[in-house]
Amino acid sequence: MDVLKVNSYEEMSDKAAGILMDVIQSKSAPVIGLATGSTPEGTYQALVKKLNDSDVDQDQITTFNLDEYVGLDASHDQSYSYYMHKNFFDHVSIKEENINLLNGMAESETAEVESYERKIGEKGIDIQLLGIGRNGHIAFNEPGTSFDSLTHKVELTPETIEDNSRFFDDIDDVPKAAFSMGLASIMKARKILILINGENKKEALSALLSGEVSEENPASILNNHPDVTIIADSAAIGE
């Protein structure tokens, strides 16, 4: 597990975009796993510029997103589909049919998660971008989630609902469930890239780096992955 220390959010974003580009340029048909939230916004801005300034054939890129709220239409401004188009897809030329997003309004929740997992298995993800929650959650995999979990529906914890309430007008508007790649789904990726910034993530980073692996700390499963890079700022590292 490699830890890259950065001194600013801008440095984190540029370094992350550079790592993503290295993987994209090393593959004829790259498959990248994407995340949402405030942390990767700068990464997407930097990646858009790098992609559009390069000779990469964007038609060959396939993407998978980690998760989506259950009950939010893709056009809802807090859906992760909306976020991804606003921050990334609308600014590049990746084919729509190569963009894989979970459907929060799926008629059959079981069919939706099973189909998504099947696509992940068929394509394989070359690099998965991740963030980490204060309680160690990755995607919407909360403490206690089985390490064997595949793409599934998750009932969100009060802590995660509170964390995400800053994006909504009222905490009561935050969806109570989501579809999420499982921990086993994430571990299938050939490379993992984690972005961790801010003092509020200090304990989560420390727990991850302790090497102790437990289902009570979902992110700890990454200690079992052969290729993990963490980009963390000095506040998260505690310096």
**CATH architecture verdict:** 3-Layer(aba) Sandwich
**How many domains in all?**
1
Query: Which ranges are low-confidence, i.e. pLDDT below 50, for 5 or more consecutive residues?
Result: none
**Structural class label:** alpha/beta
Overall pLDDT confidence: 96
Q: What is the CATH class?
A: Alpha Beta
> What is the count of DSSP helices, taking H or I runs of 4+ residues?
8
Strand order of the largest sheet: 1-10-9-6-2-3-5
Write down the secondary-structure element order. EHEHEEHEHEEHEHEHEH
Structure commentary:
The chain is of the alpha/beta class and 239 residues long. It has a single domain, classed as 3-Layer(aba) Sandwich (Rossmann fold), CATH 3.40.50. Helices cover 32% and strands 18% of the residues. The protein has a 7-stranded parallel β-sheet with strand order 1-10-9-6-2-3-5, with helices on both faces. A 3-stranded antiparallel β-sheet has the order 4-8-7, with helices on one face. Helix 1 crosses helix 2. The longest helix has 18 residues. The chain starts with a strand and ends with a helix. The mean pLDDT is 96.
